[in-house]
Amino acid sequence: MPAGNTAELIQNLNLLGKGNASAINIFSSALGTLADLSGAVGGVISGIEGIVNLFTPNQQDAYLAQILSEIQQYLVQMYTDIEARFQEQYWQELSNLVSASESTVQSLPNLVAAQPPLTDYDKTVQIETCLQPVNTLTDTTVLPTGSYFVTTYSSMTYYTDAGLYISLNSPFFDSNNNIEFSSGDVGYGTQAPSNPSNDQVFSYLYVLPYCVKAYAALITTGIALYSDFGNNAQRWEGSLISFAQFLTTIHNTIAGGIRKLTPANPSATGDWGSIGSYGQTGCVASWINLQPDVAGGDYYVNGITFIIGAVEIYSGYSSINSSMTWQWTLSDPAGPSPSTYQQVYQKLQVRALREMIKAYNAVGLFSVWSVINNLNRLTLQAPLPIHPYAGWSFQEIFAQSAVPRRSDGFLHLSDLATLIVQSPPVDTAQTAPYSWRALLEPS
Q1: If I label 192, which of 39, 102, 387, 434 is the partner at 20 to 30 A Cα–Cα?
Q2: What's the CA gap between 153 and 146, in Å, rounded?
Q3: Which helix H or strand E contains 340, and what residues bound it?
Q4: How many CB atoms lie under 10 A from the CB of residue 332?
Q5: What does the pLDDT look like over 205-220, one tens digit per residue?
Q6: Helices H / strands E in the chain, number of each
Q7: Averaged over 76-94, what is the pLDDT?
Q8: Which residues lie below 8 Å from residue 280, measured CB to CB, with a gap of 6+?
Q9: Is residue 96 predicted with pLDDT exceeding 50?
């Protein structure tokens, strides 16, 4: 298994988005700094010195060299040599695409300080050099997400939990009249995009950091050479607006691929135990023998461990919590009441939302959102609203948990706190005053 920072891309036998986030963070932070400095040439020059260091002076991009080597090893292990060579050639082409703009960024300190100063023509040549890779990466002629944000569906290994979560089903008598249990897989199975007929599927793991890098090169060069770069309607404003719109499409496509994993609503299934289908998806049942000396009818479910979480289906990144266990006292073999099951289900939605937030941030989407809004700020456009999975929002918590309004027509935070504190599985302190951080992020 590859080692190093980019080895984070490989997890659960897949190329995942964690490494993506660190790469994107670097350039989104740089873009934010440059956006703050736009219009102040002196400040821009000092800001350039920092961002120039993000682009290595090597002919071959160091980030590409390391990741390409490690991913190639992975591909050789998982797929045929032909597929590995194909992917290597594709990624090499992508690196070459942004190499010219990297060279421009590296030369910016000298360009800005040149005497005599650069002519308008010379400045435009430098900006057009940086525009070319961005235009190519964001070309939506064939696909709304661009032709580079695709890969072959058959070459991908997506998330699956097949065989990871096994539950005992209803007991039965074997041929010797002994009680036995069958077992069932209660995982969620493979979580992936639908299989397209042309075998081409949206993929962003490798391309997105380079797309943002190309954006960074363009913005850095433009701001360094023109104080009005972001809102020059006669020149580049329209292109920058379209680039932000393209990146918004990428952001929304990835965010739309975050899939919540929770057991089915008990209001639709009856409950998670007494209906006899103990091996339901997301529920691992625990059993108790109340009458070991009596043959038959003496085994009952007395607890459930829930598997909840979120998966980003395009990368396979997952954030799964399988430690929430609900154990009850069997004073009544029929188990808890339907209303209790419903309360548990509502609480699980809050806990699953936490995993969705983790997934959103782990694959770098908050940084992509920041890049979009930095572009919007440069072009004086309205900001992109923050995504519901970017962080905790009471509006989204109420929506996910379905805590109802009271008779006064309002939603009450105290009702939400009561649901989280009192509904099993109990995983928070139960004494007031409550800390919302502790309620939403229990240790």
Answers
A1: 387
A2: 16
A3: helix 338-362
A4: 11
A5: 778 877 877 888 888 8
A6: 14, 12
A7: 51
A8: 186, 263, 264, 269, 272
A9: yes
CA-to-CA dists, residue 259 to 115, 247, 277, 310, angstroms:
56, 21, 24, 5
pLDDT for 68: 42
Residues 6+ apart with CB under 8 A from 102: 55, 61, 213, 217
Least confidently predicted of 101-110, 175-184, 300-309, 369-378 = 175-184
Please state, in angstroms and rounded to a whole number, the distance separating the CA atoms of residues 18 and 351: 21
Give per-residue pLDDT as tens, 177-200: 777 788 889 999 999 999 888 888
Distances (CA, A) of 293 to 290, 296, 298, 299, 335: 9, 9, 9, 12, 22
- One-letter amino acid for residue 117 of the chain: P
Where is 321: in which H helix or E strand?
Answer: strand 317-327
CA torsion sign, 215 to 218 to 222 to 224? Answer: positive
- For 218, half-sphere exposure in the C-beta direction (CA atoms, 13 angstrom radius) is 27
Mean of pLDDT values over 253-259: 96
What are the boundaries of each domain within the chain? Answer: 5-156+199-227, 159-191+260-359
Q: How far apart are CA 351 and CA 354, in angstroms?
A: 5
Q: How many CB atoms lie under 10 A from the CB of residue 236?
A: 23
pTM score, two decimals?
0.79
- Residues 6+ positions from 304 with CB-CB distance below 8 Å: 272, 273, 283, 284, 285, 286, 325, 326
Overall average pLDDT of the 301-321 stretch: 91
Q: Which residue has the tokens 């260091």?
A: 53
Please give the full DSSP string across 176-222, using - where no structure is assigned. TS-EEEEEEE-S--EE-----TTSEEE--TTHHHHHHHHHHHHHHHH
Which residues, 6+ apart, have CB-to-CB distance to 348 below 8 Å?
262, 263, 306, 308, 324
Tell me the Ramachandran region of residue 270: left when phi exceeds 0, alpha when psi lies from -120 to 50, beta otherwise. Answer: left
Q: What is the pLDDT of residues 25-45, one digit of tens each?
A: 544 554 454 444 343 333 344
H helix or E strand, kind and range, residue 137 = helix 120-137
DSSP designation for 395: H
